[in-house]
């Protein structure tokens, strides 16, 4: 299915450490977007990577995409307590198509 | 930075009542979406809207639901006769000519 599945389900690290989250999907995609959601809040766009891209950076975020393995990863470097949230990947089959979400990775960054 | 806004932030309604959830997408965006998230569950797609018509809808989006773009700025989701199981966080999203979908902060709907 189009749905992204994040792994691990939960991740707990110390402030300053790096956090890596993975996403797998099953269909060919046009693009994949990563979001952050704080408890009870909306989904915040972090970074989008297109199917013809392999890696993108934005500040402390690094996203990779391997279309042959149908997987993506999100790396947050030098994590902060404020990074504590749930992280979701949303693969999309078409440019304007729907996003389909998995259960996310719950990241806890301990001060 | 432009953002998607939603009103109200919290709506409480009685079962069987009609509710309208409102969204103001980012100006000059052309694609609009509604999603919902039942407490503790995944975010689920409801419907997408482009060029004044529904482009895709999920199984959840039955005859009780409708969407409308009544003017050049608002995008609404109407639930005609609410059920207890409609209680959820409802998110509006919009997309422009770029690839990114931007989400609003959500409306928490509580049906009693």
Short synopsis of the structure:
The complex is a heterodimer of chains A (about 110) and B (about 110). By secondary structure, chain A is mainly β.
Write the layout of secondary structure elements.
The complex is a heterodimer of chains A (111) and B (112).
Chain A: E1 5-7, E2 10-14, E3 19-24, E4 31-37, E5 43-50, E6 55-58, E7 61-66, E8 71-76, E9 85-92, E10 105-110
Parallel strand pairs in A: 2-10
Antiparallel strand pairs in A: 1-3, 3-8, 4-5, 4-9, 6-7, 7-8, 9-10
Chain B: E1 5-7, E2 10-13, E3 19-24, E4 31-37, E5 43-50, E6 53-57, E7 65-68, E8 75-79, E9 88-95, E10 101-103, E11 107-111
Parallel strand pairs in B: 2-11
Antiparallel strand pairs in B: 1-3, 3-8, 4-5, 4-9, 5-6, 7-8, 9-10, 9-11
The termini of chain A sit apart by: 38 Å
Q: CATH homologous superfamily of chain B - what is it?
A: Immunoglobulins
Provide the CATH top-level class of chain A: Mainly Beta
Are there runs of chain B of 5+ residues with pLDDT below 50, and where? Answer: none
CATH architecture of chain A: Sandwich
Let me know the average pLDDT of chain A.
95
CATH topology label of chain B: Immunoglobulin-like
Spans where pLDDT lies below 50 across 5 or more residues of chain A: none
Q: What is the overall silhouette of chain B?
A: globular
Number of strands of chain A: 10
Q: Largest interface by residue count?
A: A-B, 25 and 25 residues
Tell me the number of helical segments of chain A per DSSP (H or I, 4 or more residues long): 0
Instruction: Sum up the overall morphology of chain A in one term.
Output: globular
């Amino acid at each position: 299915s189009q749905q992204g599945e994040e792994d691990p389900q939960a991740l707990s690290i110390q402030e300053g450490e790096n956090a890596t989250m993975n996403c797998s999907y099953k269909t060919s995609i046009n693009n994949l977007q990563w979001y952050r959601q704080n408890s009870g809040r909306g989904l915040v766009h972090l970074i989008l990577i297109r199917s013809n891209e392999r890696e993108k950076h934005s500040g402390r975020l690094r996203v990779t995409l391997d279309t042959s393995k149908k997987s993506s990863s999100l790396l947050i470097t030098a994590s902060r307590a404020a990074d504590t949230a749930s992280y979701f990947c949303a693969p999309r089959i078409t440019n304007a198509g729907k996003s389909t979400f998995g259960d996310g990775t719950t990241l806890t960054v301990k001060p | 930075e432009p953002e998607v806004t939603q009103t109200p932030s919290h709506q409480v309604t009685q079962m069987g009542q009609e509710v309208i959830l409102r969204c103001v997408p980012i100006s000059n965006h052309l694609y609009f979406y509604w999603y919902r998230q039942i407490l503790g569950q995944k975010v689920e797609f409801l419907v997408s809207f482009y060029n004044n018509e529904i482009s895709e809808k999920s199984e959840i989006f039955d005859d009780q639901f409708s969407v409308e773009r009544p003017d050049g700025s608002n995008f609404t989701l109407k639930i005609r006769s609410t059920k207890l199981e409609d209680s959820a966080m409802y998110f509006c999203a919009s997309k422009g000519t770029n690839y990114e979908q931007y989400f609003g902060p959500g409306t928490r709907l509580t049906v009693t």
